[in-house]
Structures are given as C-alpha cells and as structure tokens.
Design brief:
The chain is an alpha/beta fold. It has two domains: about 40-155 and about 280-300, Rossmann fold, CATH 3.40.50.2300; about 160-275 and about 310-335, Rossmann fold (3-Layer(aba) Sandwich). Helices cover about 45% and strands about 15% of the residues. The protein has helices at about 1-40, 55-70, 90-100, 110-120, 160-170, 190-200, 215-220, 240, 245-255, 265, 280-295, 315-320, 325-330; strands spanning about 45-50, 80-85, 105-110, 125-130, 150-155, 180-185, 205-210, 230-235, 260, 270-275, 310-315, 335. Strands 7-6-8-9-10-11-12 form a seven-stranded mixed β-sheet. A five-stranded parallel β-sheet has the order 2-1-3-4-5, sandwiched between helices. Strand 3 (about 105-110), helix 4 and strand 4 form a beta-alpha-beta unit. Helix 5 (about 160-170) packs across helix 6.
Length: about 350
C-alpha cells in the first residue's frame, strides 16, 4: 500500500511538472506574441524632402521635440523613414512612391514640391504638410477649415509677406531700384506673383533668376554686378536650403544685401529675414501626427496658418558687406544679432 502511495505521489509530481512546464511555455508564447504585436504597432513616419536631411537638422530636432511632448521617442516607440531628393526635385515622385510601398502610417512633407509628390502618390495615407505656402491655391486642400482629403498640417502662407519683405529691403537700402529674385523649380507661381505685385507698388524693378543647380547659383551671383542689382531676395525651396551655407558665402563675397525666407539663414550668417519660425511650424506639426496616429482623419483637421512673423537682422553680416542698417529698421527688429 505504501508503495502504491509513493507511485501515486511520483505520478502526481510528474503531472505537476508537466503542468508547470506547459504554463511557462504558454506564458513565453504569450510574451513573444505580445512583443511581436508591440513591434508591429510601432508607427512609421515617412519624411519626404527636396533638401538634404542634414540641412534640416534644426527643423527635425523641433519636430522630434514636438513628438516627445506626446510621448513619442524615435527608435523606441516611433520610427522614421527619411527620403531626400538632395536638391533634385525630379526625384520626388519616385521617393514618394517608395514611402507608399513601405506602407508608412503618415508622410510629413516640408514645402510645396514634396507635398505635391506625396499627394500624387497616395490618396489614402495621411499627409502632414509643414510649410507648403498656400495649400488652397496649390489645390492640396479644399479649404483651410475643412481640408477634405488626406492632407492637413501647417501653412506658411501670408498674403502680404512678399510685400513686407520688399518694403523692409527698401527701408534698409533707400536707393533700392533693382532687386534680384532667386527662385527654384519648387517655388510657387503665387510667391512670384506676390513679389511682382509688391515691386510694382514700390516701384522696384525685379531681376528674376531661376536656379536649377549649384553651378547656376554661382553664376547668378556672379552676374548681379552686371545686372546692377542693389539687393537680392531668396525664395524658398529645398535646393536653397541644401546649399544654405554657400548662398550666405556668395552674398558676402559679392557684397550683396539679401532678404532670406527663413530665420535659419540669418542665424547661420545671412543678413536679414522677415518670416514665421519654421522650427515652430515643425514643432506644431507634431500634434497633427499624434492626432492621426490616434485615429483622427486629416479631412477633419483644419490647416493652421502662421499668425506671428519676426524681423531678424544680423549686424555682423551687415558690417561684412559695408551696409549700415537704418535706426528705424533696427527699432522694428524682433531680434538683432551683433
């Protein structure tokens, strides 16, 4: 009888071990499954740009900072797929299609050309614009209040921005009569028209220069003296952002006062800018990505417009080209770099 009890105990012990092993295996399987599901749920954000990724470091840092406020940390619970055309706008459609094939959860587009390429590549993946000028005029959205499609985000458009920039240049250079305007293929027709309208009102002659490569950029600056240009206005575009440092060097070399489209140029040594804060646009764009990842539809998220513009002047750059900034202009500056 004792032997039978012992055998039964041994049998029960074996059964208990089997149950424990089975339970552990089940827990391991559930853990592995949960981990796999967690990895699958990690959202991927596509980033499509004309400019090189390295030239956008300030903007991307602001974007990541904005995402962190919503609990997203790159490499931990959110991933990025960066695609840059390296200044070659023609490559954008191919890169946009690549992001669509990767089935990213959202595509972020800085500027008009990347936004257009992304829109043509997909009508289902949400697209968040960061600074596309006038998205209604470009037919990206039906209206700012109700975008109506798969695009939303931030607009850098302001109807009197071009006029203000030219007006500030004329106040800075009283004898201003001829201004070179630098454009790229990604510059919008609307931006050009606004500048042309402002020039007529201020009685300033424009010298339009379309830039498609760095070589053309070098040649254009070299021709400014022959064209008798008193100043230059740099338009937007990834090509210019990519070669930002070289543009600032060329303006100094040719002693050319220049108005830039974004504060980054002036912080890097350019003369002056009148614009909204682009890093702030990127920081605010993060809230759109957060809402979309939580289920919101772009069609229901109104496009935000800039409400604050800042005049920033770099006195070091002015001294380098022998330009004295009038006191009345300095008094209007939000920031002066000495």
């Amino acid at each position: 009888m004792i032997t039978g009890i012992r055998q039964q105990a041994v049998g029960n012990s074996k059964k208990l071990k089997l149950v424990v092993y089975a339970f552990c295996a089940m827990l391991f399987a559930l853990g592995a499954s949960a981990e796999a599901q967690q990895q699958e749920k990690t959202p991927r954000i596509g980033f499509l740009s004309v400019a090189s990724i390295s030239s956008l470091s300030i903007r991307l840092d602001a974007f990541r900072e904005g995402l962190q406020k919503f609990g997203y940390v790159e490499g931990k619970n959110i991933a990025f797929e960066y695609r840059s055309a390296e200044g070659q706008t023609a490559r954008l459609p191919e890169l946009a299609s690549e992001l669509v094939r990767l089935k990213v959860d959202c595509i972020v587009t800085p500027g008009t050309a990347p936004t257009r390429a992304a829109k043509q590549a997909t009508s289902t993946i949400p697209i968040v614009m960061t600074s596309p000028g006038n998205p209604v005029q470009s037919e990206f959205v039906v209206s700012l209040a109700r975008p109506g499609g798969n695009l939303t985000g931030m607009s850098s458009f302001s109807s009197d921005l071009a006029g203000k920039r030219l007006e500030l240049l004329k106040e800075t250079i009283p004898n201003l009569s001829r201004v070179a305007t630098f454009w790229t293929l990604s510059s919008t027709d609307l931006s050009r028209k606004e500048t042309e309208d402002a020039a007529r009102l201020l009685k300033v002659e424009l010298i339009p220069l379309e830039i498609r490569s760095l070589d053309r950029l070098e040649d254009a600056f070299g021709s400014l003296a022959k064209e008798r240009a008193n100043a230059a206005i740099m338009g937007g575009g990834g090509l210019f952002v990519t070669h930002q440092k070289r543009i600032i060097e060329l303006a100094a070399k040719h002693r050319m006062p220049a108005m830039y489209p974004e504060q980054e140029y002036v912080l890097a040594g350019g003369l002056m800018t009148y614009a909204t804060s682009v890093p702030d646009l990127y920081r605010r764009a993060a809230s759109y990505v957060d809402k979309i990842l939580k289920g919101a539809k772009p069609a229901d998220l109104p496009v935000e417009q800039p409400t604050k513009f800042e005049l920033i002047i770099n006195l070091k750059a002015a001294k380098q080209i022998g330009l004295t900034i009038p006191a009345r202009v300095l008094e209007r500056a939000n920031r002066v770099i000495k």
